[in-house]
Amino acid sequence: MQHPWNFRLKTAMAIVSLLGLGTPTIAQDECVGREQLRASSAEFRKDVIEVTNGVFVAVGYSASNVTLIQGRDGSIIVDTSANPVDARAIVEASGDRMARPVRAIIYTHNHPDHSGGAKVFAGSDQPEIYSDQTLVDAKPEFGRGPRGGDAFGTKLPDEHDGCYPTPRTSGRSGTGTHET
């Protein structure tokens, strides 16, 4: 016996074919929201911005921002990026604005895009760690939760410029193929 959804799908495909509506194809030159994506990319380009005297924010290097606070005897880091690769890029871009030793790392919350680069920022400095007790007590799969790059699209391939074309009907009937 066929499942009802399987029967409905086959019926819908037959109707589309009989009416000559064709199958969807991908138009290379069309993308809903392309300009908005480009504007967002420009807003979050890689930069270390001075917010006020001695306070800097690294934007665009990771799925979350990293804040660097200069102190008399070292630095304080607020959130540490998603991973060591991003953290190393931020340390390099910060240059002498990040004075060693790092005295403290502050986690605003437990998402992995805020806590993955701690070892890079800490180095051998042994900073004090400040966070909610939930992050301290949690097992890794909860403490650093499943959220991160997948939520922000950072794992999408670069060749699409962050934009995937919208399907359109080709006007052909039958099963057809998708053009890429």
What would you say this structure looks like, in words?
The protein is of the alpha/beta class. The longest helix is centred in the first third of the chain and has 15 residues. The protein has a domain of 111 residues: Metallo-beta-lactamase, Chain A (4-Layer Sandwich). Helices cover 30% and strands 20% of the residues.
Characteristic terms for this protein:
180 residues, Metallo-beta-lactamase, Chain A, six-stranded mixed β-sheet, 8 strands
Shape: globular
Q: Write the H/E string, N to C.
A: HEHEEEEHEHEHHHE
Weakly predicted, low-confidence segments: 147-152, 164-180
Task: State the oligomer.
Answer: single chain
Distance between the termini: 37 Å
Number of strands: 8
User: Helix coverage percent of residues?
Assistant: 25-40%
CATH H level, superfamily name of the domain at 45-155: Ribonuclease Z/Hydroxyacylglutathione hydrolase-like
Main sheet overview: 6 strands, mixed
Give the mean pLDDT.
Answer: 74
Assigned CATH architecture of the domain at 45-155: 4-Layer Sandwich
Topology, element by element:
Layout lengths: L3 H15 L5 E3 L7 H10 L3 E6 L2 E5 L6 E6 L2 E5 L5 H11 L7 E5 L11 H5 L5 E3 L2 H5 L2 H4 L5 H4 L14 E3 L11
Parallel strand pairs: 5-6, 6-7
Antiparallel strand pairs: 1-8, 2-3, 3-4, 4-5
